[in-house]
Every structure is written in C-alpha cells, then in structure tokens.
Amino acid sequence: MNIEEVREYALTMPGVTEDMPYGPDWLIFRIGGKIFLHLRLESPEPTCAVKLNPDEGADLREHYDGIRPAYHLNKMHWNDLYLDTLDDALVKLLIGKSYRIVRARLPKRLRSQYGEG
User: Most buried pick, 2, 23, 68, 88, via CB within 10 A?
Assistant: First the structure.
C-alpha cells in the first residue's frame, strides 16, 4: 500500500476524521476524537503508526521486519508499519485492529454511533 491507499482505507471506517495537528507532514485519523492512526506524509520510507495490544505488537515485531516500535510515540502500544515491506492485507488488518481498540474504549453512547453497542 502507499500512503494515499492507507488514507483512503482509513476514511472508509465509520466515524473517522482526519486532521494535521502536528503540521503538514502528518495526517492523524481519529474515531470519537481519539487517535488510532498516524500517517507520515514526508518520509524516506512510507510508514504509518497503529495502536495494538502490547503483546500482539511485540509478537508482530519479532516476526516482521516491517513492523517496529513507533517513532516518537509510546513504543509499548504504538507500532510503525513500513508500507513497502508489508502485505496490503496485513496493513489493512492492523489498521482495522487499531480502529477497533480505540473505538472499544470510547463511551458506550459513542461506540453505538460507530457500530458497536
């Protein structure tokens, strides 16, 4: 996947918004005001950062060279995905997991708006 495909995929999920709070080099995707995806626009290697369960993130880092602790984020929860080295299906799966992790922590009234009660 390239960064535009990641952006397009993220925007297909219910309730997702995007903004650039860190300046023009980063797109941030949120659900219910909470961040689930960081997308770096200007980078030597196309990357995005997703939030995962700490155990799952550690396991994935051991098995994939293209998954590493996220740069400038909590390395226990956030993982950089190097898009050129990972299968598109895996990238989509991990973006979806990040979305669901963040959505699950929203108040119930918000979760129900986005497809979960």
Answer: 68
More confident residue, 70 or 73: 70
- Helix/strand/coil (H, E, C) string of the chain? CCHHHHHHHHCCCCCEEEECCCCCCEEEEEECCEEEEEEECCCCCCEEEEECCHHHHHHHHHHCCCEEECCCCCCCCEEEEEHHHCCHHHHHHHHHHHHHHHHHCCCHHHHHHCCCC
Determine how many CB atoms are found less than 10 A away from the CB of residue 48. 26
Q: Is the pTM of this model over 0.90?
A: yes
Q: What is the pLDDT of residue 35?
A: 96
pLDDT of residue 77: 94
Residue keyed to tokens 């598109």: 88
Tokens representing residue 27 in the block: 């797109």
